[in-house]
Write a structure and sequence with these properties.
Elements (H helix, E strand, L loop, with lengths): L30 E2 L2 H8 L3 H20 L3 E7 L6 H4 L7 E8 L6 H7 L9 H8 L1 E7 L4 H15 L11 E4 L5 H13 L5
Parallel strand pairs: 1-5, 3-4
Antiparallel strand pairs: 2-3, 2-5
Length: about 200
């Protein structure tokens, strides 16, 4: 398991884009962590817990259709101290799922198993049902195309709308620790809904 803690928000209310003490070092965005650390860090309010439950359900649906190998970039106001910055709760989690398709399977077959998970016209449905603003990128495309799409997402996600530079997270797509993350949310909810 990737066992790196999620960085704390900086004075601007965002995850720092890099280690400010070592700006040329390798510890930088996207920060590799795991689903358990992510849930532990951000399950601080009932609204955030509800969003995390939806996100875990979304991941479960991805696993059911055969997407278990790859990683997810996690971002948006959910990763920010949005309650302080804009005096509101987050609405959803922004996620790009970078995935590998197992031999013998195909992208068309995966999509056919649950079209609403993937279709662009189902974006509002995914937000409503899973609290995610989701995008997908196959890791099995031409290297030039993959670099181009990765650069696109990095450039889109490395700053807020007000151009504040910020970091984001990367978690494995594997379902291995999702049940542990769900148990954490159940425990927090039973104790009153906040950490």
């Amino acid at each position: 398991m990737v066992d790196i803690d999620v960085p704390s928000w900086n004075s601007l209310g965002v995850i720092p884009p890099m280690d400010e003490a070592h700006p040329a070092g390798a510890y930088r965005s996207p920060y590799k962590t795991n689903i358990v650390k992510f849930v532990e860090k951000f399950s601080t309010t009932p609204k955030r817990i509800s969003i995390l439950k939806g996100f875990l359900e979304f991941r479960s649906e991805l696993h059911k259709v055969g997407l278990v190998d790859g990683f997810q970039w996690i971002n948006g106001s959910f990763n920010e101290n949005i309650e302080l910055l804009e005096k509101r709760p987050p609405n959803d989690i922004d996620v790009v799922t970078f995935f590998n398709i197992h031999p013998g399977d195909s992208q068309a077959a995966i999509v056919a198993r649950n079209p609403e998970l993937f279709q662009p016209n189902s974006a509002e449905w995914r937000k409503e049902n899973y609290h995610v603003d989701s995008y997908f990128q196959s890791l099995q495309v031409a290297s030039g195309n993959l670099v181009e799409r990765t650069v696109y997402w990095y450039s889109m996600w490395s700053h807020r709308r007000d151009l504040t530079w910020k970091g984001f997270l990367q978690i494995p797509l594997s379902p291995e620790y999702d049940s542990d993350a769900k148990l954490i949310l159940i425990k927090i909810s039973s104790e009153g809904g906040e950490q």
